[in-house]
Design the sequence.
């Protein structure tokens, strides 16, 4: 029994160390990508920043595209966690939607170096992952739009199409503003989306019950 316990403890320790090393690599890579850009960054630079050998780096990641995928996965998970923690309890759904848009823009600004690199990359490199992340975001937004329409807060329309429109507009506005490092312009994106997309659809019946909205 003691042997098994020791083996389990060693296994747990190794897993903790592996996770710690992986986090340090990702942190180092984010600095290198921001400094050098994705194409110019090298595994040697990332390893040097992380304080490990290149061989050890390859024990954790297949290459820099694998590292960048992990960084973006962490970003997208963090984005949704931020939205859930700040906005999930807000009612009505239209206000939750507005909260999630504001939260997303704020989170973007905090991670702008990573997102800037992603926006400038050839989209085919991460086409499968990007499609999955966007479907997840569109689904949350479309559900909130559909709920707002059911309540009567928004005029009936296609929630999936509106969700895609909103996300596309956000991406384009961010791409326009990001090079300027202009926080004020970035923070104006939720107001622009609200004014151009959501406000024209509002019925003025915010607070109507579901039964009334049918």
Sequence:
């Amino acid at each position: 029994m003691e042997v098994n316990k020791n083996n389990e403890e060693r296994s747990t320790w190794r897993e903790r160390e592996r996770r710690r090393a992986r986090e340090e690599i990702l942190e180092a890579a984010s600095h290198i990508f921001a400094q050098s850009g994705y194409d110019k960054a090298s595994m040697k630079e990332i390893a040097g920043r992380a304080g490990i050998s290149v061989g050890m780096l390859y024990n954790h990641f297949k290459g820099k595209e694998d590292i960048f995928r992990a960084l973006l996965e962490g970003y997208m998970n963090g984005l949704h966690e931020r939205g859930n923690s700040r906005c999930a309890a807000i009612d009505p759904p239209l206000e939750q939607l507005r909260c999630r848009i504001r939260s997303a823009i704020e989170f973007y600004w905090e991670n702008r170096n990573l997102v800037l690199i992603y926006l400038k990359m050839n989209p085919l490199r991460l086409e499968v992952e990007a499609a999955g992340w966007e479907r997840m975001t569109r689904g949350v937004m479309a559900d909130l739009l559909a709920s707002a329409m059911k309540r009567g807060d928004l005029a009936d329309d296609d929630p999936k199409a509106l969700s895609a429109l909103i996300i596309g507009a956000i991406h384009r506005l961010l791409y326009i503003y990001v090079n300027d490092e202009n926080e004020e312009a970035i923070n104006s994106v939720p107001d622009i989306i609200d004014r151009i997309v959501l406000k024209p659809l509002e019925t003025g019946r915010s607070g109507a019950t579901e039964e009334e909205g049918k």
About this structure: DSSP finds eleven helices and no strands in the chain. Residues 2-36 form the longest helix (35 residues). Confidence is low (pLDDT under 50) at residues 207-214. The radius of gyration is 21 Å.
